[in-house]
Amino acid sequence: MSYLKCDVIIIGAGVSGIYAAHKLSNDLGLDVVGIEKGSDAGGTWYWNRYPGVQADTDSHVYRYSGDPTVSPSWDRAARYQKGSQIRDYLQDFMKRQDLDKIFHFETTATTADFKEEQARWEARTDRGQTFSARYLIGAAGVLSKPVLPNIPGLASFTGQTIHTARWPEGVSLAGARVAVFGTGSTGCQLIANAATEVEEMVVFQRTAQYVVPAGQRRWTDSESHHYEESFAELWDAWRLTRLACGFEEPQTGAQDVDEKTREEVFENAWEEGGGFNFMFGTFSDLAFNRVSNNAAADFIKQKINVIVRDSDTVKDLTPTEPYARRPVAVDNYYETFNRENVSLVNSRRNPIRSVTPHGITLDDGRFFEVDVIVFATGFEAVDGAYRDFHVQGREGTNLLEHWGDAPSSYLGIATPKFPNFFTVLGPLGVFSNLPPGIEAQVDFIAEVIAVADSTEAATIEVHPDAVNRWAVESTEMAQGSVFAEVKSWIFGSNVHTDSPRALFYFGGLGSYRQRLRNEIDNRLPSFQLSTRSRLTQQ
Ligand code: NA7
After folding, report:
1. Atom 37 of ligand 1: nearest residue by CA position
2. Kind of pairing, strands 527-529 and 211-212?
3. What's the pLDDT at 531?
4. Where does the UniProt annotation place the signal sequence (predicted)?
C-alpha cells in the first residue's frame, strides 16, 4: 500500500501518454506520474505484435513532429515502419526525454475518484497504490479494448487461440494450419503476410472490405532528402490539412471531372498505394457524396475481378456496402486468395455451426482442422478504454454511465462533471492521422493546465452547453457522411450494434486546431475556472 501526491496522473504510455508526459513534465515542469498496464511503453504498438503489423501512414507523419531524431531501428528509407520499429521509436523517445522514470509499468489503474473537498483526483491501481493529483489525463487509447466473438464450442478448442492485439511474444504461424476471423486493417495485414509461411489458412469473412495496396517502398534519395531537410516546414503545412497524412488533399470532387480522368486518378492512386491516399487524396468528396463514393467502390471492385482467379472467391471478396470504413491498405491482399494454401469462407452465406476440439464446422457440414485460431476481430473503440477503469467525477458521477449511448466530450477532451480531467482521443475527437491529432489535443491540454495554474484555480470544468453544441455539430457532420451508412468501429456499431453513435469529429484537423486556438486566444470561454484558491484548500 502506498500513497503518493503529484500534480498529474497519466493513464497509458502509448503515443498519447508519452507525449502528454513530455509536455507536462518537461515543458511545464509538473510532477507527473504515469500508469501503464504493459511492461513497457508503446500502447497500440506494444500490444499489437501480429505477423505483418505495420503503420499504413507514411513514416514522416507517423512520429512526433517536434522530434527530428529517430531510433536506431527506424528505417529512414522505408515508406512505412513496422510495428516493432514504431515501438522502438516510442520507447527510445521516452528514454531520450527522460520520461521512463515517470511511468509505473505492469500496473493497471482500476479507479479514479474526484475528491471534491480537496479538488484532487485519487487513482488506485491493482498493485495497491493510491496516487493523488490535481489533474488526471486519460490517454488509454482509442482502440485498446479487444473484442472477442462468442462462437459456440470455442472453449472446447484444444489448439491455440490468439487475439491479434494480445499476440504472445515469439509466437509464429510458420507451418501451422490457421483460421483467421476478421478482415479489417488488422486481419488483412495478417492474412497477406502470414499466408506465405503457414501450411494452410482459412479466412472466415463476415463482411467484405475494400482493400487497396499499401505501396510499401523505399524512398528515393531525393525524397528522403526532401523530408529530412524540410521536416518542420512540411509539418506546418500537414497540420492544416484535414487528415494530416502527409499528402496534398484535393479540392476537386469526383463528379467534377470526366470518367476518363476519374479512372486515371484512381489508377494512379492504386499504383501509388495507401488507403487514406485513395479515399482522401484522389477527390475531395468520396466520404460525403454517395455517387463519388460509388465510383471509387466500382474501381476497386473491378480490381478484385481482375486480380482474383476463382470466380466464387471474387464474388465473396466483392463488397456490397459503400466504401465507408476506415480505409484498409495492404500489399498483395487480393493476390493472397490465389494461393493454393489459402481459402475463403463467406460466413454470412455459410455460418459457423461450432468450434470443436480440433477445428471449425460450418452449417453446411464442412470441417476445417486447424492448429491456431486468430481473432482479428477489432476493438470497442473510444469509450471501450474506460470499461475496466472506473472514473468517478462530481457527485459520484460514473464516466461511462454519463457518456451512455451517445458518448460526448468537448473536442474529445473535456467532459462536464469531470473537472481537471482531460481525455486524449475521447469521444468526438478529431478523425485524422493519429499522431498529429494527438499532438493537437495534448498541446491544448497543456495550455489549459497552464492557464488554470496561472490563475491558481482549484478546478477547471467544461460548460455543458459547449459539449452539447460540439456534439450536435460533430454528430450532424458524421451522420452526413457516407461512413454513417455502414456498421464499423468508427460509429461503435461493431459492438453497440443497435445503438451506433458518432465518435469522431469529421471536420478535419485544420479546422479542429482552429477551434482549439480560438479557445486559448479567448481565454477558454467554454470552460469554467473555480475562483477558490487551491492553496487555501490544502
Ligand atoms: P476492425 O476494423 O473492427 O475489423 C474487425 C473485423 O472482425 C471485421 O472484419 C469484422 O467483421 C470481424 N468480426 C468481428 N466480430 C466477428 C465475429 N463474431 N465473427 C466474424 N468476424 C467478426 O478491427 P481491426 O483490428 O482490423 O482494425 C481496427 C483499427 O486498428 C483499424 O481500423 C486501424 O485504425 C487500426 P464485420 O465487418 O463486423 O462484419
Report:
1. 207
2. unpaired
3. 74
4. none
